[in-house]
Automatic annotation (TrEMBL):
<feature type="signal peptide">
    <location>
        <begin position="1"/>
        <end position="18"/>
    </location>
</feature>
<dbReference type="GO" id="GO:0008889">
    <property type="term" value="F:glycerophosphodiester phosphodiesterase activity"/>
</dbReference>
<comment type="similarity">
    <text>Belongs to the glycerophosphoryl diester phosphodiesterase family.</text>
</comment>
<dbReference type="GO" id="GO:0006629">
    <property type="term" value="P:lipid metabolic process"/>
</dbReference>
<dbReference type="InterPro" id="IPR030395">
    <property type="entry name" value="GP_PDE_dom"/>
</dbReference>
<feature type="domain" description="GP-PDE">
    <location>
        <begin position="44"/>
        <end position="354"/>
    </location>
</feature>
<keyword id="KW-0378">Hydrolase</keyword>
<dbReference type="InterPro" id="IPR017946">
    <property type="entry name" value="PLC-like_Pdiesterase_TIM-brl"/>
</dbReference>
<dbReference type="GO" id="GO:0006071">
    <property type="term" value="P:glycerol metabolic process"/>
</dbReference>
<keyword id="KW-0732">Signal</keyword>
<keyword id="KW-0319">Glycerol metabolism</keyword>
<dbReference type="Pfam" id="PF03009">
    <property type="entry name" value="GDPD"/>
</dbReference>
<protein>
    <recommendedName>
        <fullName>glycerophosphodiester phosphodiesterase</fullName>
        <ecNumber>3.1.4.46</ecNumber>
    </recommendedName>
</protein>
Length: 368
């Protein structure tokens, strides 16, 4: 009798957790089967934020290939759009921080300002070079090259590599997967793609970055889970909800809602269109409801799991530690929170630690 009541309670509460999206297409795409949603290797996913940018220039081919050979599960391109509609792989709306553009005298009179604040994002460029004011070809012809964004990191490889457009990143990954396949991995190394400044582009520049991304994926036949699973696993992430709703109205590719620490989010609603969340790490430690500790599972993560969402927090930086004094401990502390994946700028050390903790777990099981 007690068991029956317990099951009934579980069923009722399970039902109350799930929030069904009112749009039937979004609902169906949200609940589609995604074989690579969870890492089958028995450890959290490693997502290389801007490639292996801890050691190489952000979003350079070198950073992506290095992350690949370090064993990353995904490389993570951010998308901007040029004046002629090319998806430009770069984090910022403007180029001074991560390129050599200020050294190209022909562009001296092309500097300007942008301040775009919405309820989800803030973008600020001051006396800078806005990606969308330039065509792709003029940047390449002028010799634009990428740089590492942190002064404290190594700059040996700055100003060597041109930026990538999304097509370059896709083709690079397809080629690496084909020519240097990883042994013993169920899935190929994928791309975890972020649409940036979606509303800025839509409202101020009249371009729909999410639509261009969808069309590009379609061009490469990567626009559904079924196609992506075999060729190149794809995640779509954004701080901007509209862009994820757009994707879920078009395709069953997995979506991840990025979360900053300064906004109130409705997790039930997010779970109606998103397969996961990408929270700032503070959500697992000291945002509301968490009692700060370094070794117990996080209530936030548990809540997301109840809502059938994966949790991929950002971002691990071995040279900017937050919760410990050792990069290995930092990885272990996040893992104890129960996360399903990590955004990291040092994929090699993150993966090595995760493989080590996994082998320790397996050893314990054998001993028992
Ligand atoms: C921000 O505003 C947009 C447009 O009004 C809305 O769709 C979205 O839900 C809002 N985001 C948050 C986090 O409240």
């Amino acid at each position: 009798m007690k068991l029956v009541i317990l099951i009934a309670i579980l069923l009722i509460s399970k039902h109350s957790w799930a929030y069904d999206n009112p749009d039937p297409v979004i609902r169906e795409n949200r609940n589609a089967e995604i074989p690579y949603l969870e890492n089958p290797e028995g450890r959290p996913y490693v997502v290389s934020h801007r490639g292996a940018c801890g050691t190489l220039p952000d979003h350079s081919t070198a950073a992506y290939a290095t992350a690949y050979f370090d064993g990353t599960d995904f490389d993570e391109p951010d998308l901007q759009v040029t004046k002629d509609g090319v998806l430009f792989v770069m984090h910022n709306l403007c180029m001074k921080e991560t390129t050599n553009i200020a050294d190209l005298p022909q562009f001296d009179d092309r500097r300007s300002d942008v301040l775009h604040i919405t309820n989800e994002t803030t973008f600020k460029c001051t006396d800078d070079y806005i990606v969308n004011d330039f065509t792709w070809q003029e940047l390449i012809d002028a010799g634009l090259k990428v740089r590492n964004r942190y002064k404290s990191r190594n700059h040996f490889y700055d100003d060597l590599y041109p930026p990538m457009r999304l097509e370059n990143a896709i083709e690079l990954m397809l080629e690496l997967n084909e020519k240097s396949p990883k042994q013993g991995r169920k899935f190929k190394t994928g791309l975890y793609i972020e649409t940036k400044a979606v509303r800025f582009y839509k409202e101020k520049r009249n371009v729909d970055i999410a639509k261009i991304l969808y069309d590009t994926l379609e061009k490469y036949d990567l626009h559904t889970v079924e196609k992506a699973t075999e060729k190149l696993p794809i995640f779509i992430e954004s701080f901007e909800q509209d862009s994820l709703l757009y994707f879920k109205s078009k395709t069953d590719l997995p979506t991840v809602q990025l979360m900053t620490s300064s906004i109130e989010y409705d997790l039930d609603w997010i779970s109606s269109y998103s397969n996961g969340v990408g929270p700032k790490h503070t959500y697992m430690f000291n945002q509301e409801g968490e009692d700060f500790n370094l070794d117990k599972p996080s209530k936030f993560v548990e809540r997301c799991h109840e809502l059938d969402m994966k949790v991929h927090p950002y971002v691990l930086q071995d040279d900017i530690l937050v919760y410990s004094e050792d990069p290995i401990d930092e990885v272990k502390i996040w893992e104890a929170k129960g996360v399903d994946g990590y955004f990291t700028e040092f994929p090699q050390s993150t993966l090595n630690t995760l493989l080590y903790t996994k082998s320790q777990r397996e050893l314990t099981l054998i001993k028992e």
